[in-house]
């Protein structure tokens, strides 16, 4: 896993010191944060002049909202509409920041380069002490989702173990449903997730995993049930080329979390805005577009299952 | 009407159509092949450009083991287009392809493409891309682009190029060719048909006319023959010339036969007249002698007179058959000819015929006067008789080229062709009621003067043409 991680960072041209750092350890990334920021700025095209962000900002400063591919993040028009809606509700402009890797968003969040982000439960539980839980989306009435093992619609694979020796696509090394859970599932069966498949690769995002399976690049993948179900509505021809092989137990839905830079007052404000979104007609139609019911307030222990799974897997691989 | 296949009316449009079809199809095939060649060239060049453009990122993808990056690049916005792209890593295993179901990740390239020759180790600065021609599994050409990073090969980009994407265009060109051919045929077939008819029409008429030669009199054959600048027109003119030569020959033969017949008749008449005249002279002399030697009473005198008148009548009839044209020694003058006009005047008035008289002779003509006068008078009286009842007669007399030419025309009843053949014979069967020696005498005079006489019918006009050669200074 760490090998893959190193490649990923290297590709983005970030500093070499970070390559050795364990991604779940924020303390390790701090010493090189400055260089990371500069490189990140270069990569993202933002001018150097903006420098490090201010700890306290005027209310006219945009609220920076990081998005990961846990949600369909390719819908620019929808995102612009949502940003406008949040701005009218809380009086601050909203700027969505998108990265294809979960880790990049997490780094920006931990460094205070963005204020809040919609991330996966797995990176959340690893950085729980630094992040504040703002709201959890409710999908099909509950703040829960699953991981789906999917294969090609016309594939002869009937059980998970038929995937042995096949090609498998991971969503992201920081994804619960697309990486942590499938590895945990194999480990629970006593299989080594690094040797079970003939070859694995990262597709960087659940929709791409679906594409990889639909197009035959991979024999199987594990994807976020919310993404799969939402794609089934928006891209039915893509989804009909795949078939769900196995469904996982339910986990806490990827949450919206605040980074250390966001003050408690602002956290309360944005939480209030999001929780009330379902009551506003415009907000409700935006939620409909997201294929979500509402945003709800949940206790952090919603993600304990993921934490336990991560813990056990780390022990298992460490042993 | 059924036409045999050999008819030009079928062969011409068919030939045109076949030429059009062959031309259009050859054009379509040539265009198609040229387009195919151009498209192949473009395909090779595009693949090369694309390969070079992708190379940098693909090297990075190989180095970072980023399968999705490599795949999404190869897949492109349209699924990779026509070509099959394969990225092979350093170990010769497939790293990505835009046909992921067929070329699986991690599959050795030797097993995926067993026919692909081993990549030759290349010098770095050599042109890396090369399109070589193969013919395997619908793959026509292969582009191999070794990927180098820091002077060492890290992988290879392979593009399999096929002609499959061009087949629809090829088909379009062919269909276009067929449509054009069809349109051309729609225009050419009727044109060819009409042209064939136009070309063949004169030939058919010519053939029809030729078929009548030998069965019909060439002098009376009415044929519409082609007469233009084409070869068929030349043929028509040649045929018309041949026809007129035939007609001339026929006329000559007829004239010869007629002349021979008339000459024979003349000899017979002369012989008979001679044989009759001798005893006739003897009998008349006997009557005369008897009168002188014996006193004759009234009854005998009446008898002798009867005998003598009968014998004189025989003598007159016989001498009418014997024309002695050269007996007269007087030279013909203009007045002799004008006398004829005066002599015919009473008959003309009686028959209510208008006469147009044109006499271009004003000097003495070296011909015997009496026979020519008789000749002209006979012909004019004949004409006046034929034209009686508000007809008209026209006489023209000229001397030219040492010939006296007389042309006597009249309107009225036309002489039928079969009568023309026997016109100059004595006592013709067609005119038993007349004495019928007029034209016979004319003919005798003309032949004795060495000239020609000809009768012809031209519509409702009957024309006699007489041509008499002038004798030398002193008439015989």
From TrEMBL, chain B:
Keywords: ATP-binding, Kinase, Membrane, Nucleotide-binding, Phosphoprotein, Transferase, Transmembrane, Transmembrane helix, Two-component regulatory system. GO terms for molecular function: ATP binding; phosphorelay sensor kinase activity. The chain crosses the membrane at residues 12-33, 173-195. The keyword Transit peptide does not apply. It is an enzyme of class 2 (transferase). CDD domains: HisKA. It holds the Pfam family HisKA. It is found in: Membrane. Its EC number is 2.7.13.3. InterPro entries: HAMP_dom (IPR003660), HATPase_C_sf (IPR036890), HATPase_dom (IPR003594), His_kinase_dom (IPR005467), HisK_dim/P_dom (IPR003661), HisK_dim/P_sf (IPR036097), Sig_transdc_His_kin-like_C (IPR004358). This is histidine kinase. It comes from Thiocapsa imhoffii.
